[in-house]
Amino acid sequence: MSDAIPSRIEMARPAFRTGTVAQMPRRAVRRRSPFRRFVSSLLLVILVVLLVVAADFARFALLVGTSERPSDPRAEGIVALTGGAARIDGALNLLSANRAGRLLISGVNPSVGRREIASTLDPDARGSLDTRVDLGHAARDTIGNADEARAWAEDHKYRSLIVVTSDYHMPRSMVELASAMPDVELIAYPIRNPQLEMERWWRHASSARLLLAEYLKYTLARARLVFESPKELHETEPSATASAAGVAPEVLR
Predict the structure, then answer these.
(1) Transmembrane ranges (predicted)?
(2) Is 197 left (phi over 0), alpha (psi -120 to 50) or beta?
(3) How far is the first Cα of the chain from the last one, in angstroms, to the nearest whole number?
(4) d(CA 89, CA 123)
C-alpha cells in the first residue's frame, strides 16, 4: 500500500504540471515600437517648444504693454522710423525741446513732399522741419532703417541716439539698430497709440493680431542675428540721406 500511494502521486504530478496552472496565459510584456517612441518624443518636444514660445510671447507683450518714455532723454541725434504721424510729431517735439541736435526721419517715401509732412504735424512742431531735420528715403523696412540710421550717425559722428517709433515696433527696432550700431548708445522713446490699448491687448482682436504679427517679426529678427554676423546683415550701404537744405520733396511712407 505504501508503495502504491507514491506512485499515484508521481503519476499525478505531470497532470498537475500540464493542467490548469500550466494552461494559465502568461502576461504579455508589450514593448512600444520605435515609431511610437519617436511619436511620443516628438509630441513632448513640441509641447516644450510651445510652452517656451508662449512664455516668450508673454514677456514680449509685457515689455510692450509696460513700456514708458524716459523722463529726460538726451542724445546727440534723434532717429524717427516712419509709419505714422505721431512718431514724427513726437520726434519733432523732442528736437524742439533741444533733447538732441538733429533729427533723421528714416524711410521717407518720395511720393509726398515736405508740405504733406508738415500738414500732418502739430503746428508747434513744424518750426524745425526745414533747418534741423534730415530725410532718409533709402529704407523700405526696419533693416533698412537700421542701415540708414547707421550711415547718418557715422556722417555726423554721433555716439548716442534717441529712437522714436511705436511701442509695439520698438523691440524689433532696437534689435536691428543695436546690431547695425553696436557702439552707439540707443535710447528708446516709444510712441503709444491709446486706441490700440497694448497694455490690455487681449481685449481687442485687432491689437492681438498686431502684437502677434510683430512678435513673429521680432522672433525672426533675433533668429537671423544668431546665424548672421552684423557685417553680413548691414554690408550694403544705403544712399546718402537728404539734408533739409536742398532736397527735392519727399514723403513719409
Answers:
(1) none
(2) left
(3) 116
(4) 10
Are the CB atoms for 123 and 96 separated by under 8 Å?
Answer: no
CB 106 within 8 A of CB 81: yes
Q: With contact defined as beta carbons under 8 Å apart, do 55 and 82 qualify? A: no
Is the pLDDT at 6 greater than 60? The verdict is no
Q: Identify which has the larger pLDDT, 25 or 123.
A: 123
Which amino acid, residue 143? I
Domains of the chain: 65-252 (3.40.50.620)
Please tell me the number of Cα atoms within 13 Å of 226 on its side-chain side. Answer: 6
Which own/partner pairs from 225-234 qualify as long-range (CB within 8 Å, at least 24 positions apart)? 225/175, 225/179, 230/179, 230/180, 230/182, 233/143, 233/179, 233/180, 234/143, 234/146, 234/147, 234/150, 234/179, 234/180
pLDDT at 240: 38
Dist. CA 155–CA 83, nearest whole Å: 24
Strand partners, 160: 185
Single out the residue of 100, 58, 59 nearest to residue 189, CA to CA. 100
Which residues make Cβ contacts (< 8 Å) with residue 147, sequence separation at least 6?
138, 139, 180, 234, 236, 237, 238
Distance CA 84, CA 107 (A): 11
| Helix 170-180 with 34-65: angle, nearest 10 deg | 100
User: pLDDT per residue over 156-212, tens digit each?
Assistant: 999 999 999 999 999 999 999 999 999 999 999 999 998 888 988 999 999 999 999
pLDDT score of 117 more than 50: yes
